[in-house]
Specification:
3 helices, about 90 residues, binds zinc ion
Amino acid sequence: MDQASVREGCGNSVIMKAVEEWQANETIHPLTCGIDSNHRPLKAVGRDGKVILICLDCEYTHTAVPECVIKAHLEDMHRRRKEMLILNGFMEAE
Ligand SMILES: [Zn+2]
């Protein structure tokens, strides 16, 4: 799967959830404002059918959600789904 198809294969709600989880995870560096990194972490909002990142403290916007954020979310979802299947006896643990 190439980089572009990761984003295209996801609905906006998935991308927004991916950003939400990324920003809530204290073990990774949050997506921050490009003008002042002391501003609050960026927030995902839908605009013109796309998901963009906005700073709540100034006018800064970032028009694309980084692929790594989406990928991390998808991998996490996949892992959790697998755990659930193993837990319910539908799949053998590796
Ligand atoms: Zn800002």
